[in-house]
Amino acid sequence: MVPLRTKVNKRELILTEASKLFKDRGFGGTGMRDIAEKVGMEAASMYNHIKSKDEILELICFKIADAYTTQLSEIANTEASFQDKLKQIIKVHIDLMIHDAAAVSVANNDWKYLRDEKKEEYKSIRKSYERSFAFVLEEGMKSGEFKTMNVSVALFTILSSLRWIELWYKPSRDISAEELEEELSTILLNGINI
Amino acid sequence: MVPLRTKVNKRELILTEASKLFKDRGFGGTGMRDIAEKVGMEAASMYNHIKSKDEILELICFKIADAYTTQLSEIANTEASFQDKLKQIIKVHIDLMIHDAAAVSVANNDWKYLRDEKKEEYKSIRKSYERSFAFVLEEGMKSGEFKTMNVSVALFTILSSLRWIELWYKPSRDISAEELEEELSTILLNGINI
């Protein structure tokens, strides 16, 4: 029997390599054989760790969704100011995009290939994430920390303004994750105007 | 012979209906027959107005690219403050997305199906648009109107924060184009903070 610890590591390795392949070649363009090759395993023995390509996609998407959701809920439940909460949420998005780039890209783009039931579950987690994020904005407006504005407009502007980083960022850019977080927080919280 | 005026109108009609079909079914999923049917023409007589599906895609993409480029260059060349220039550029994006929604969506998403040479031309127009936009931001920073920050980060944050509107906006939303422009300008120029 494969020891549990090794099994978990192998699974993680399979997910990591699969994320990169899905990102580069698309979910449809990647076969279990390609994944096995990258991981350095026989395709047959990979099935000891994972059932199918569908299962790999599910694990990647829900892992990322869970990372966002857990961190948002931790932030929302602190006593920090709404400004600080928003800064921390922006940081979560940028950190995940930079440190788990391939998996975030798969979760953002390939979730539509999830099987029907899982796709519905994924969409409902995303909706609920948006609702919780909107609630932080709404409360921040009520508290007088944020300008009063259409909550959906504010929410989607923020979410969308964070999306390009996934496509643009690479370690060779002359800006660190911290500087990016600082600049994005500044634009969204205080604007481009001096 | 078909009078020139009617010919231009027919061509416009073909582009309008083709944009909607490309947006709904994708460029690959739409045939010349589908377009002819929507326009209410025989496929054979449509070829009096347009050579191919590739030509339709080209006309749509370059029409939109031209609309953005012309307006940006007009705005950049005025004596307005940089804040006002930025507001006007934001307005151009939102107006085009709202009033020419299907064509903008095709230009944003289906340009990758342009033929090689045209695709390169299109990409270089986009690059040059981004450079001109970046120049407005850079000059605004130098003038002291805008905060000093990484120009690429500011540019892509703005461009990306305007993209979601294309997917979200429909006339049934309880917000007008003017209100959207106002809110987006406020967030980007002055931030969410009070």
List keywords for this structure.
Arc Repressor Mutant, subunit A; DNA-binding (chains A, B); 2 domains; HTH_TetR (chains A, B); mainly alpha; 194 residues; homodimer; Transcriptional regulator, TetR family (chains A, B); Tetracycline Repressor, domain 2
Explain the overall architecture.
The structure is a homodimer of 194-residue chains. Chain A has 194 residues and is mainly α. In chain A, 73% of the residues lie in helices and 0% in strands. Chain A has helices spanning 4-25, 32-39, 43-46, 53-76, 82-99, 101-109, 116-142, 151-161, 164-168, 177-190. The radius of gyration of chain A is 19 Å and the shape is elongated. The termini of chain A are far apart. In chain A, 30% of the residues are buried. At the A-B interface, helix 8, helix 9 and helix 10 of A face helix 8 and helix 9 of B. Chains A, B: Residues 31-50 bind DNA.
